[in-house]
Write a structure and sequence with these properties.
about 45% helix; globular; about 280 residues
């Protein structure tokens, strides 16, 4: 087959394949939902019909940081100056649950004015494209990244730094950024020490990455719970869902459960409540 005959054949095959492949989903309208997921591939927003969250009244042991984050988010939703927030600390202590609960509370107060947009850490390089979609819209947008951290070779933190403060355009007035992390400085301690020990100018080498956490005006720390707080969380869940169990028995089982997990936290308490409800034959509605 000659080149002249082959090229039209290839063109027909390409057209046939395009007809077989489904069209890319369209990006959801910015007033279509209360929460969205950002997909860097395709640069589109996916509306979330139901957000997996806990009611703010059920979050125990975080009252101080809850009030700070609520006040900051309320100011932002009203169009007033507000800070980006970094929620850092022990695993399972309610960091991501608090962000989603605060959004739900403020969004209800403002009759849908505040939208939650989750972006995965791996997609931070696409932040400029996301901000271009959100900029100048009438709604306020809370960008949320869960479990944010960076390793030795990761350079996506530079995109985030520019968005938080350093870029020419800066952060749009209708966008705020909340992140959760197990690390206060968003990078492992051993990485910080390694860069200090190997760099020609140790201070500059560390400053480049550590300065990212300084872009967050609010640093809210979360710490492991004591037993009384752990019991308060378990009691709150049991009351809320109407679990039929004696208080002393509830606490005894809760202690046993926490010992098998080696920790007392909100996540451990919720996992215990799910197990307990299943054994009691009750639904968590």
């Amino acid at each position: 087959m000659t080149d002249a005959e082959l090229l039209p054949l290839l063109a027909r095959i390409a057209e046939a394949l395009e007809r077989l492949s489904p069209p890319a989903p369209a990006s959801a309208a910015l007033d279509a939902a209360d929460a969205y997921l950002w997909h860097a591939q395709g640069a589109r927003l996916e509306a979330v019909a139901h957000v997996n969250r806990v009611e703010i009244a059920l979050l125990q042991g975080v009252e101080h940081v809850r009030d700070i984050l609520l006040a900051n988010t309320r100011r932002f939703a009203q169009g007033l100056p507000a800070n980006n927030a970094l929620l850092w600390g022990a695993r399972g202590t309610g960091k991501s649950s608090l962000v989603k609960a605060v959004h739900a509370t403020v969004n209800q107060e403002t009759k849908g004015r505040l939208a939650l947009v989750e972006i995965h850490r791996e997609d931070l390089n696409s932040l400029p494209a996301l901000l271009a979609k959100l900029r100048d819209h009438s709604r306020q947008f809370l960008l949320y990244c869960d479990d944010l951290s960076f390793d030795q070779s990761d350079t996506s933190y530079k995109s985030l730094k520019a968005v938080l403060e350093g870029g020419i355009e800066g952060r749009p007035e209708n966008v705020i950024f909340y992140a959760t992390s197990n690390r206060r400085h968003l990078m492992p301690r051993e990485m910080i020490e390694n860069e200090r020990s190997t760099a020609i100018n140790p201070a500059e080498a560390v400053e480049e990455k550590v300065s990212l956490s300084d872009r967050f005006g609010l640093w809210l720390g979360f710490h492991n719970y004591n037993q009384d707080t752990y019991f308060a969380i378990v009691d709150g869940y049991a009351r809320h869902y109407g679990l039929k169990i004696d208080s002393d028995d509830l606490h005894r089982q809760a202690i046993e459960w926490s010992m098998t997990r080696g920790a007392r936290s909100g996540r451990v308490a919720w996992q215990f409540i799910q197990d307990l409800a299943g054994r009691l034959g009750q639904n968590l509605d």
